[in-house]
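User: Hello, can you help with two protein structures?

Assistant: Certainly.
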Amino acid sequence: MTYLKLLRMNRGLTQRRLAKLLGLHPTVMSRIEQGWFAKPPAGLDQTLRAFFGPAWTFAELMREVPAPAIETPECDECRAESVPA
């Protein structure tokens, strides 16, 4: 997942809604999130900075977010074994 997708999701936006807010076609927004563009289409870098903040360049938004640690719930048998009888 890229920072672009994470920021979009944190703001509760769909790709379609973000595309509309940025003046893009939804397909272009999808392709941007999927990493189809090595460089942003003309003017997009400035548009993204205006929307997300000046620190969020196209290159920064395309960086992969470190995978979060996933905690798995213990199984019932494991829990029963750890409880003293």
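That covers the first. Now for the second protein you mentioned:
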Amino acid sequence: MHDINVIKSKFSFPCIFPIKIIGISNRKVEKFILQILKNNLYKKNNLQINTQNIQKNNYISVTVLFTANNEDELIKVYQKLKENSDIKIII
């Protein structure tokens, strides 16, 4: 998971930013992830999303590439994603 201090010190905004999210495989998790991204990203039209089932379809891996406009946007997305207990890893 990206440390908040790393986000503040290592990136020049706007920038292309990848997030990988791994969670329990169910439609609710996938919908939750997409909703968080759509609700919290300034530029929604730049989303590149790759989804695949892993670990015998018990988990879902969602990789998202998008344009991040500022650190507050990234922090908000990470915080919102962490609210769902079915999401196990955010990288």
